[in-house]
Amino acid sequence: MNEKQWIEYLKKHVSCFEDVIGIGDDSAVLPDGTLISTDTFVEEIHFSRKWASWRLIGRKACEATISDIAAMGGKPLWLLANLSSSESGGVADELLHGILECGIPLIGGDTTSSQKGAVTLTLTVLGKTERPVLRSGAKTGDRIFVSGKLGGTQAGLLSLQKGLNLFECEKRFLEPRARLDISESWGALATSMIDVSDGLSTELNHLSEASKKRFRIDISKLPCFSEIEKTGREAAELILESGEEFELLATSNFNLPGGFEIGVVEDGHGVYDGLNEILPRGYDHWS
Q1: Position 285 confidence tier, pLDDT thresholds 50, 70, 90
Q2: Which tens digit of pLDDT belongs to each residue from 118-158?
Q3: Is 287:2 a contact under the CB 8 Å cutoff?
Q4: What are the helix (H) ranges across the chain?
């Protein structure tokens, strides 16, 4: 069972209150517009001390978590943090410093010791929106937008691994930012929305499946980091696969401010570039 199959299993077998939007979107939505999302980060799965300080790791984890609120068109308000580590003192202090840099009040959490080895950090964010934007709302004729350049995260990791000195991409890998600057303005106009956390190809397929529509994109229109050409990889592959970008991907029949138009929503199913189907290529924890 892969990650997607597990989520589908949960959706079928976990009951939810009728007026609560639960499993299947970036955040749960309570009747009053409260948003709740949680993320777990495991050492050597989500982060490595080879590339980043504990402060940078804490900041990136926080950005990843609050990006789920941005994807719903909301504003993050409070955080809770749980830390499991065999080390005390410095690790927790540096992680906390990075988390607090996001500017979201930390209102609670838990700490536990662990067996010597991997550090695990879990962050839960609570936010608010008056108009939650789900993955399932795309309409035929909507245009598809992405909020910024893609491919930088994976190119940045390759640069660090191979010593390529692609500094712009390394910065995207180490210090990505959630798009809170546009989340509410896009949320007011979007029919469906998601953040690019598992790769553009995967996120396009998520929106297509949830909305029961065909997404037709033009790969030549995808905005990207110019440095990715120096990785030796096909630019289109990196753009479609690269996760942890945290740009917003949305559909709308309006122009989304600052967005790059990359395609159109049609009747049908699947994601296509011309006649070529684009299958999910992003990260799957259990694949």
Answers
A1: low
A2: 899 999 999 999 999 999 999 999 999 999 999 999 999 99
A3: yes
A4: 3-13, 54-70, 90-100, 152-162, 167-174, 183-187, 200-211, 235-241
CATH code for the structural domain at 143-277:
3.90.650.10
Q: What are phi and psi of 174, to 5 degrees?
A: -85, -30
Give the CATH number of domain 13-128.
3.30.1330.10
Domain coordinates in residue numbering, the chain: 13-128, 143-277
Average confidence (pLDDT) over 251-273: 98
The predicted structure's pLDDT at residue 12:
61
DSSP labels, 199-260 = -HHHHHHHHHHHHT-EEEE-GGG--B-GGGGGGSS-HHHHHHH------EEEEESSPPTT-E
The residue whose two tokens read 């598809």 is: 144
pLDDT over 80 at 238, yes or no: yes
pTM value > 0.85:
yes
pLDDT at 284: 62
Structure tokens that stand for 216 in this block? 């037709």
How many Å apart are CA 95 and CA 179, to the nearest integer?
Answer: 21
Burial pattern 4-19, b for ≥16 Cβ within 10 A else e, equals: beeeeeeeeeeeeeee
Q: How many residues does the chain have?
A: 287
